[in-house]
């Protein structure tokens, strides 16, 4: 099977004898949106720089659509749109001038380039600024412009390194929506971040990296299931009487109950089916329930449980 | 063979793209405008001041041309430093390389394009300077008095341009900061090399291997420079040498080729860490 991105035993040791990547291997299928998660210094940016041929690995291989990036960069990079770190921009040029150059680099005709520039600037809310100097742009506008550059040639694969870095909440939401659109268009998206919550909003799968090694990989669905605790928080319309509590404790699926006023913390085996059956039984017994949800440890707690608290590594 | 030919064609076309983009950047940054203005204003000073002061322009068209062209090497160094000083290290220092490099365009074609763009911009400056000088000679001495040696001086100035741009470009490839590359280029080409040249002259060793020594060829064929940076009629220069035309050309070509190739190798291996 040919993967959109395939990394084999990638090692990167910087000149200061610092190991940034220590045998990273991973695969990303075509059309997937995958998060690459790790603390600062885990090696996320190093991986992405190798994938985009900005640096060479000490050993190992990185493939884009089956093409070795370091051996045949021109062919491999044809399929990629990339945003790595916070790139500088030519602040004395206009977005139109800058994007025209990159359109030509990707072999687009003048007509195609102009048409595509209009499309991407419209998509990123920069149409009114097409002929203004980039030097007058805010951080968010610059960020949107470099994303416009990354998608200009309609790449099959988009590599985004901390795409929401430095953006305000509105900007972050816009970027998340854009990533959703790219996925709908069939694009493979590989996003690095140190925020699980951020990645969980847009990704189907997450790869955890720490100390230059892949330490876990799972689907967002499984991660959400794993974060759920074996307890349900239920709130009732009326305060619970001792009889109510006895009736609840008589339900076989419930292990035990802690109650305070009109709320109850119901302990059970943690299975989603059991949770549904408990709810159904409570309703059938005439309990008036105003809220009912399975307790979760939270994505950030899960992240820390996978990573540990120590932030180590290089970059 | 077809693949190879296609590859070369692709590289040439990518280099051409890079040249056009660089020239546009030079225009937008007003650098091209500034040195172009200097290329017109500086030789005009040699015409306007004598007119205002009502003094002779010089005994002959050749001596006028020698004096005027005496300032050309300084302008070439300024132009080379402005166009090539930040060409390589600027992409790393300002992180614009993170936009520029992860594309299907090879780094070699990007860097060759940048070099050629710096060269073309400086050629334009040299050409303008020589055109203005020629027009002045026509105005003062008449069309028939334009010295034939002026064409040779022009060609030698173009050759010095290639070596000066190569020196600056090499510094840009090995240094991390654009400002360091630019300042070091000025210091090296306008001071250090000149000082070494003078010291070697003083102890009786001909500094044939120093590129700024070959610069004297630009004006030497026209006549003696009586003032300006090209004037070497000073007490310190006890052993006066004259550069040999062919040796000078050889030295300028050697500086151009060696430093250009070295800078391409260094720049292509530089990583965006």
Label this structure with key terms.
heterodimer, A: 315 residues, alpha/beta, Rossmann fold, 6-stranded mixed sheet, 4-stranded antiparallel sheet, 11 helices, 14 strands, 36% helix, elongated, disordered C terminus, B: 273 residues, mainly alpha, 12 helices, 73% helix
What does this structure look like?
Chain A contains 11 helices and 14 strands. Chain A has a 6-stranded mixed beta sheet with strand order 6-7-8-3-9-10, sandwiched between helices. In chain A, helix 3 (about 95-105) packs across helix 4 and helix 4 packs across helix 5. Chain A is of the alpha/beta class and about 325 residues long. Helices cover about 75% and strands about 0% of the residues of chain B. Chain B has 12 helices and no strands. In chain B, helix 2 (about 30-55) packs parallel to helix 7 and helix 4 packs antiparallel against helix 7 (about 105-140). The interface of A and B includes residues 74, 75, 84, 101 and 107 of A.
Please describe the topology of this protein.
The complex is a heterodimer of chains A (315) and B (273).
Chain A: E1 5-13, E2 19-28, E3 33-37, H1 44-51, E4 59-64, E5 67-68, H2 73-77, E6 80-83, H3 95-105, H4 110-123, H5 139-151, E7 157-161, H6 169-184, E8 188-193, H7 196-202, E9 205-210, E10 213-219, H8 220-227, E11 228-236, H9 242-249, E12 256-260, E13 263-267, H10 272-284, E14 289-296, H11 299-307
Parallel strand pairs in A: 3-8, 3-9, 6-7, 7-8
Antiparallel strand pairs in A: 1-2, 1-4, 4-5, 9-10, 11-13, 11-14, 12-13
Helix pairs in contact in A: 3-4, 4-5
Chain B: H1 2-28, H2 31-53, H3 61-69, H4 72-84, H5 89-93, H6 97-100, H7 107-141, H8 149-174, H9 178-202, H10 211-214, H11 217-220, H12 245-269
Helix pairs in contact in B: 1-7, 2-4, 2-7, 3-7, 4-7, 4-8, 4-9, 7-8, 7-12, 8-9, 8-12
């Amino acid at each position: 099977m040919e993967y959109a991105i395939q990394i084999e035993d990638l090692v990167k040791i910087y000149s200061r004898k610092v190991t940034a990547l220590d045998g990273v291997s991973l695969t990303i299928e075509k059309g997937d949106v995958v998060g690459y998660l790790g603390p600062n210094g885990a090696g996320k940016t190093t991986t992405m720089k190798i994938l985009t041929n900005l640096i060479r690995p000490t050993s190992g291989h990185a493939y884009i659509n089956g093409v070795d990036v370091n051996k045949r960069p021109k062919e491999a990079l044809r399929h990629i749109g990339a945003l790595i770190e916070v790139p500088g921009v030519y602040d004395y040029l206009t977005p139109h001038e800058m994007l025209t150059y990159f359109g030509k680099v990707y072999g687009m005709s003048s007509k195609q380039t102009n048409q595509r520039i209009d499309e991407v600037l419209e998509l990123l809310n920069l149409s009114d600024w097409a002929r203004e100097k980039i030097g007058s742009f805010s951080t968010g506008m610059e960020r949107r412009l470099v994303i416009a550059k990354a998608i200009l040639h309609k790449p099959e694969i988009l590599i985004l390194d901390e795409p929401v870095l430095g953006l305000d909440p509105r900007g972050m939401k816009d970027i998340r929506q854009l990533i959703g659109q790219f996925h709908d268009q069939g694009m493979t998206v590989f996003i690095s971040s140190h925020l699980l919550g951020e990645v969980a909003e847009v990704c189907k799968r997450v790869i955890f990296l720490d100390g230059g090694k892949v330490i876990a990989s799972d689907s967002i669905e499984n991660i959400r299931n794993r974060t759920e605790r074996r307890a349900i928080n239920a709130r009732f319309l009326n305060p619970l009487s001792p009889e109510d509590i006895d009736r609840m404790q008589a339900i076989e699926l419930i292990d035990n109950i802690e109650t305070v006023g009109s709320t109850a913390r119901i302990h059970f085996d943690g299975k989603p089916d059991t949770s549904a059956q408990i709810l159904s039984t409570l309703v059938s017994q005439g309990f008036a329930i105003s809220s009912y949800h399975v307790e979760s440890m939270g994505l950030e707690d899960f992240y820390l449980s996978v990573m540990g608290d120590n932030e180590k590594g290089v970059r | 063979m077809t693949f190879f030919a296609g590859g070369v064609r692709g590289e040439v076309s990518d280099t051409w793209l890079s040249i056009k983009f660089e020239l546009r950047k030079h225009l937008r940054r007003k650098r091209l405008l500034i040195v172009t203005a200097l290329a017109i204003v500086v030789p005009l000073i040699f015409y306007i001041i004598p007119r205002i002061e009502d003094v002779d322009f010089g005994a002959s068209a050749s001596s006028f041309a020698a004096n005027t062209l005496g300032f050309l090497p300084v302008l070439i160094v300024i132009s080379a430093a402005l166009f090539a000083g930040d060409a390589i290290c600027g992409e790393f220092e300002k992180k614009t390389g993170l936009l520029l490099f992860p594309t299907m365009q090879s780094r070699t074609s990007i860097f060759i394009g940048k070099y050629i763009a710096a060269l073309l911009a400086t050629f334009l400056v040299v050409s303008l300077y020589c055109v203005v000088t020629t027009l002045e000679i026509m105005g003062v001495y008449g069309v028939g008095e334009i010295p034939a040696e002026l064409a040779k001086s022009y060609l030698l100035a173009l050759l010095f341009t290639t070596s000066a741009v190569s020196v600056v470009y090499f510094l840009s490839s090995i240094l991390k900061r654009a400002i360091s590359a630019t300042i070091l280029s000025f210091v090296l080409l306008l001071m250090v090399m000149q000082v070494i040249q003078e010291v070697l002259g003083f102890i009786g060793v001909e500094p044939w291997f120093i590129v700024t020594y070959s610069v004297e060829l630009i004006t030497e064929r026209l006549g003696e420079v009586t003032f300006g940076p090209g004037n070497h009629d000073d007490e310190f220069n006890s052993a006066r040498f004259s550069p040999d035309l062919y040796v000078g050309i050889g030295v300028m070509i050697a500086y151009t080729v060696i430093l250009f190739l070295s800078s391409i190798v260094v720049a292509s291996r530089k990583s965006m860490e």
